[in-house]
Write a structure and sequence with these properties.
- Helix content is about 15%, strand content about 35%.
- The chain is of the alpha+beta class and about 190 residues long.
- It has two domains: about 45 residues, no CATH class; about 120 residues, Mago nashi protein (2-Layer Sandwich), CATH 3.30.1560.10.
- The strands form two sheets. It has a seven-stranded mixed beta sheet with strand order 8-7-6-5-10-11-9, with no helix packed on it. It has a four-stranded mixed beta sheet with strand order 2-1-3-4.
- Helix 2 packs antiparallel against helix 3.
- The longest helix is centred in the middle third of the chain and has 13 residues.
- The radius of gyration is 19 Å and the shape is globular.
């Protein structure tokens, strides 16, 4: 099975590498010089990052305080004032998935679908969110060179009441496409 590319959640580069902790050997120094690994230092704690982007120097990974185990719901939207827009909500507390497609404006959805959210589907969603590195996305992605266009947001709600929000305007995290495929697969319809 091929290794998954390390895609930076900040800049989208596929030039991410593993961060290696501990006293570096001469081989590790050489690998670091070639950009194959990043040296993290001798001391390590459970929350230290595990990945580094060689292009923008963003570090991510580790053991985040937020755990998908306690995730209660996810809401995702992508669209704009004109053209198609999509809204997805998966709420495990009421075991329902809702999908809405807006053809031209956000006034009236052209398609509204609701279906049961099984434990099996919820586990697939959680696994997909982990594979998308969603918890490590920046809170905001903005392309200031585009005045109008496409906006998106993702909202995670946890059992504790904690809410994590990620959003953007004409700019996306590194694993945005796999995230959209996850939703499309879950609802059986296009998302994005």
């Amino acid at each position: 099975m091929p290794k998954r590319k390390v895609i930076c959640p900040r800049c989208g580069s596929s030039n991410g590498v593993k961060i290696v902790y501990g006293y570096p050997s001469s081989k590790m120094w050489e690998e670091a010089e070639r950009g194959e690994i990043s040296l993290g230092g001798c001391c390590v704690s459970p929350n230290d990052p595990t990945r580094c982007c060689n292009d923008c120097d963003y570090n991510w990974g580790g053991n985040p305080l937020e755990s998908f185990v306690n995730l209660k719901s996810i809401k995702a939207f992508i669209g704009g004032h004109f053209g198609p827009s999509y809204l997805f909500v998966a709420d495990f507390s009421i075991e329902i998935v809702t999908y809405q497609f807006f053809k031209d404006t956000l006034d009236e959805p052209s398609i509204v679908e609701r279906k049961p959210l099984t434990t099996e589907v919820w586990k697939k969603i959680i696994k997909g969110l982990k594979n998308c590195d969603l918890i490590y996305w920046l809170d905001e992605y903005k392309n200031h060179n585009v005045i109008d266009g496409t906006n998106w947001y993702v909202e995670l709600v946890f059992d504790s009441g904690q809410i994590i929000e990620k959003n953007g305007s004409n700019q996306y995290p590194g694993r945005w496409k796999p995230f959209c495929r996850l939703i499309s697969t879950t609802v059986g319809n296009k998302f994005a």
